[in-house]
Design brief:
Class I SAM-dependent methyltransferase, single chain, Methyltransf_25, transferase, methyltransferase activity, alpha/beta, Rossmann fold
């Protein structure tokens, strides 16, 4: 078995790595939240959109969707998936829009890619400025105090004659504003296994800290991390969906 650092361009494996994600359920859940709390508009922007699967579902539901990401190869795939959408190579902590939108989403815990609390503050301010009156910012997050360093998500996929095993898990050292997302891929082809590992630096915040950052800009509602049901956060679980209405 060979083992190397995971290459920075994940575009070729991104959809396989996310094969266990229920994109329709996530998209439908956020649309329901937007119906309840939003301004009834249909202009949508997806931050850290990757290869565009969420954008595809929003377009199919009648939204005017766009996406941004810092990875051009992923945006190239997104454009093929959603030829009617506009995608831009931008950092979510410093992005601009041509005109305000009604809904901004950030799925798959990607808000943590901000990396530092300062950059997270910049992202929140940019989102606020990009939304119309009573627009909604919806994202999911993990509370640094609830991270189990021994836990990881794992799934397998058969693709093009190879067997893939993907795993990912959060790690937090117990103090400071940095946590890590640890990723690994194993690919077995004709009995030969290759493996790649990587660790992405992510911003670490508690939900109380996150709400403090959001509240100058938004009216904040926090829900359990369940896209099939709208249930207020119980104050205990370490994963949640944030619905933020522009003030």
């Amino acid at each position: 078995m060979s083992s190397t650092a995971l290459y920075t361009d994940l575009s070729g494996y991104y959809d396989l790595m996310c094969a266990d994600i229920d994109y329709p359920a996530q998209s439908n859940g956020v649309r329901r939240l937007n119906q309840l709390f939003g301004n009834n508009g249909s202009d949508h922007l997806d931050l850290a959109c990757g290869t565009g699967p969420h954008v595809r579902h929003f377009i199919d539901a009648g939204f005017n969707s766009a996406g941004l990401d810092i990875n051009q190869p992923m945006l190239d795939i997104a454009q093929l998936r959603c030829p009617e959408a506009h995608f831009s190579l931008q950092d979510m902590c410093g992005f601009t829009v041509a005109a305000p939108v009604d809904l901004i989403t950030c799925f798959l815990y990607s808000i943590h890619y901000s990396g530092t609390v300062e950059r997270l503050q910049q992202c929140i301010a940019r989102v606020h400025g990009a939304l119309r009156e009573n627009g909604v910012f919806c994202f999911n997050a993990v509370d640094k105090g609830q991270i189990n360093n021994q836990s990881c998500a794992r799934h397998t996929v058969e693709h093009d004659g190879s067997h893939f095993t993907f795993s990912s898990g959060w790690h937090y050292g117990g103090q400071g504003e940095q946590q890590a997302l640890r990723l690994s891929i194993e690919k077995t082809t004709q009995g030969v296994t290759q493996s790649w590992q990587d660790e992405h630096p992510m911003v670490a915040v508690s939900f109380a800290e996150l709400q403090t950052l959001l509240e100058p800009y938004f009216a904040v509602q926090v829900f359990e991390h369940d896209y099939a049901r709208i249930v207020p956060w119980d104050g205990q679980s370490g994963n949640a969906i944030f619905v933020c209405v522009k003030l």
